[in-house]
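#struct-queue
[09:14] JT: dropping the first one here, sequence first, then the structure tokens:
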Amino acid sequence: MTTIEQVLAERPPTVGAMFLERVAATPDGEALRYPDASENWQSLTWAQTKDDIWDIAAGLLALGLQLEERVAIASNTRLEWVLLDLAVNCAGGATTAVYPNTQGPEFAHIVSHSESHYFVAENVEQLTKLRNSAVDPAQIRAAILLDGTDEDALSLDDLRAKGRAHLAEHPSAVDDAVKATGPGTLATLIYTSGTTGMPKGVELTHGNWTYEGVAIDELDIIQHDKLQYFWLPLSHVFGKAVMMIQLRIGFASAVDGRQDRIVAGLGATRPTFMCGAPRVFEKVRNAVKANSAGGVKGKIARWAFRVGRRSHAQRLAGRQLPGLLKVQYAVADKLVFSKLKERMGGNIEFFISGSAKLSSQVQEWFYSAGIVIVEGYGSTETSAVAAVNVPTKPRFGTVGPALPGSEFRIADDGEILFRGPGVMRGYHKDPERTAEVLVDGWFHTGDIGELDADGYLRITDRKKDLMKTSGGKYVAPQKVEGTLAANIPYVSQVVAVGDGRKYVSALFTLDPTSVENWASRHGKEGLSYAELTQLPEMRASIDRFLARANAKLERWETVKRYAILDHELTVEGGGVTANMKLRRSQLADTYADVVDSLYDAEPED
């Protein structure tokens, strides 16, 4: 019997080698699906994908790309991002991932600190941002522009043409470059979005990525004949990891990074699975609950989900539902759940949630409707996936056990430590910080958690995020935020505050679609989003749901006061990271006056 140690030892040494194995195994299988200019979906086989990637990789070699030299890509997720990233790795270079909304000093820091010599811009806006930044123009040897034209930049077709000419003279150029790379060769440089200060560059190697692919393949979560809907930002580690997993397993991906097109894309492509951040699932749940809050429709929906909750124990245990419950669930599915599934294409077998903690209430709500969301866990420093639940036997409230070949340990202070082949090479040009988090082979995650008897990991909070009230009680803000977001239908984002204060308060933002639906039901059409969020009637609605949410928290965790912001927190505004994590310290400064107002006249406990 083959052991995981043997599987890991025999895995492809590099991304290029893993890609070539996939092409050889299923050359005519579908690899990538993408929308054209007319919103019609087109498809590429693995063999066609390889031909395109080889042209692009050869083009980069013709421009002078050397081993481990960085190519910065500033673009939203799209087909070209996938092709370019793989081409960079096959040519022996490393991709510097730049989130397209990164601005000012942070943008300049990433491009300069990474020493990227080549820059791929999605459009003229990204190219202009480079030219107006503090990046030394002499650092950039060539710029490639995906959309639009610029006399000083190559188009992707120009790069392909250079590649074809290079291959005509040097037919084995890309194959030789693949062979020149090894497991320890730098493949990706991703700058952690961070909640304070300039981001750190995380060095991820070819061996990190091939491990991710092989480890997930061993779990048999996804089969080669499945279709993924892929919208995750490729500028961040979760998206990159999923693409590497695809190379190993061979499923197809429908690629479209436009977040406002996710529901339409699911309906058009009818995928079998999708990965996403918790906020995507929270928004879907809140929208459904807000749309069916009243009347007969609301009563039917609430009945259906009550039936769904009663079915959990038997379904999780793999048992048949008893007679009456089986009939009731079938009716609930026909009247309510099937419509929800159809909105998502009708073929979804499961979702995978990552990047931040998923509320167990959200997870259970979807499970009631027959839709499984399994939660995974990891960070940029662990090549994204360090643990994941298996869809056939999810354990709610946990992120699953460590990936095969890796392990967790809980430190004396509750911090989660992780060891395995997915751990980064180190922070770019920062040995001191590397030494702080990598100790005796263990990566110190900065997260607090616990392991159960079966090795399933439960995350409780970020070590640095724990709040301590003036009464001496520790409060995990993520727990409070997750509970409120899961129980107040109109809420889009929640920021719990209260460190050093007598009690916990919160800042809310509201979901625009839910607010519009509320307005139409309450005769408030015509008012702006900002106006609607500040109406007393809206606060009255939220007050009712807040009381229910508080009932699910410990007394010292309950939210006594809150403020509703008249706008959502965005990446552009600096309120959240690209993975939709709250920038707590920055938000505390930005909304200091609002927070202070919540403590002007303190209520009694």
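[09:21] JT: and here's the second one, same format:
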Amino acid sequence: MISPEIFIQNKAAEAIAALYGTKPEPESLQVSVTRKEFEGDYTLVVFPLLKISRTSPENTGAAIGEYLKANVPEIAGFNCVKGFLNLLFSNVFWNESLSSITGDPSFGQLASTGRRVMVEFSSPNTNKPLHLGHIRNNLLGDSVSRLLKAAGNDVVKSTIVNDRGVHICKSMLAWQKFFDGKTPQSEGIKGDHLVGDCYVAFDKWYKGEVKELMEKGMPEEEAKKEAPSIKAAHKMLVDWEKGDAAVRDLWKKMNGWVYEGFDQTYAALGITFDVVDHESDTYILGKELVQKGLDGGVFEREADGSVWCDLTADGLDRKLVLRGDGTSVYITQDLGTAERRFANYKLDSHVYVVGNEQDYHFQVLKLILKKLGFDWADQIYHLSYGMVELPEGKMKSREGTVVDADDLIETMYQEARKTSEESGKLADLPEEEKDKLYRMIGLGALKYFIVKVDPKKTMLFNPKESIDFNGNTGPFIQYTHARICSILRKADEQGLYYGEVKMDLAPSAKEIRLVKLLGLFPSKVDEAAKALSPAVIANYAYELAKDFNQYYHDTQILKEPDADLLAYRLTLIKTIARTLASAMALLGISLPERM
């Protein structure tokens, strides 16, 4: 389907060529939706065309408008306000538009760009379960991947599991000291939750030691470095990198517990990956790049053996890329992973979905890669998103004050069940079907509430608000889809025919508004993909659902006596349901047919 803007640009170019004998430059044909205070559907800006017409804006607009009205059946009228030509489309145009949308099974899928894009998201640490902050990361990464694919890109979804480092050693040490012999099976909990408990236990142990050292007169900063537990964690990391068998065995066992837990959470969220990397593999690649940087004068080695990159001339700081004991830091593995991915997957660009507390990290990553001679560093994009906060405030993993993803998913299920039972909407359904719907509604509410907020903004999450069947929520859009499906089922039961749009029908203003909204879907996909913002699609779906409900309230559908108009309305609402389902699928949200 050709967009109204492109249609007007093409026809206006024909008009200008016929009137003035000159073909206008494409950039001079500026078209937008007509502002609400003026009569019209779309507006052509006349000012850029005056150098061709060599007459006033009013005369130029009137001449183009008269030509279009006389020669283009889709244009029903026009008015010219100063340098703005407001065009009104005929019923034929809107009926052709609906027919085109209805007949396009891939409506909303844009043409192939020939570009391959990798989206990295989730990237959890194996020292704790996924929590609410990870949920925002996962939902953004998954929906951005879907958007980029719908926008015509070949998309590779990836994650890197941060399965090594001091933070992992902290959980391992705490397990040895406080949990030795305990397993997920013996404790009756998921493995990632058990390891998370170890991490919290280490933090309490470490803080106790720091406090004790400070009470003996040691300065706080020194106490934090000299606490026996933190020194033991660093030694364990060195032992791990040297391949110590006992350390490696414990590491494999505890990580195995975590992976089983992660898999269950990902399955509940509907998250999958095409590529799973592990830091325990990629950190070695980074070390090779560090040596390359040393050889090329990009990095410098200090007396203690540590390796640094001096970025002060670029307005940044000096960046540690290798510790004095030879162990790597986060930037080390990120350098190596980026090089391998661009080479192995022939990437055109790479999107990292990581919270805004890592803004500086990605500035440094891109700059160092550029200094190492990788031109593709300019094609690295950091989708920097704001944190998720609760009504009670911020979450802290070390202190055990996070909201676990598993607990939140269960809470959403229970909220959906409670709200649905109170409304009585699902009372007649079998228990098995109701349970499936509760999960679909709960998950839809969670996903929509998260992704409807612009990624850059910090957001406040309130489970009860997200389940509301009215307002800008996932359940409201799900219920709208179910309502349309119910109407269409009744139409089928009555043997009503629909599916073809007759061109001589006169749609109402509300119907034209709905067709306009439907026609915007491809441009919204393009806009959302370019901005890496699922919020664009979420709010588009809400607007379409809201306008349908107003239309349904004001318009009789199944009781419409005119057979052609009835068929038109059934075709219109079926297309709305399909577009809602397509839009919400880009957010990873399923829409039920009954609710």
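[09:30] RK: nice, looked through the second one.
[09:31] RK: The longest strand covers residues 154-161.
[09:31] JT: good to know. The two ends are 32 Å apart (CA to CA).
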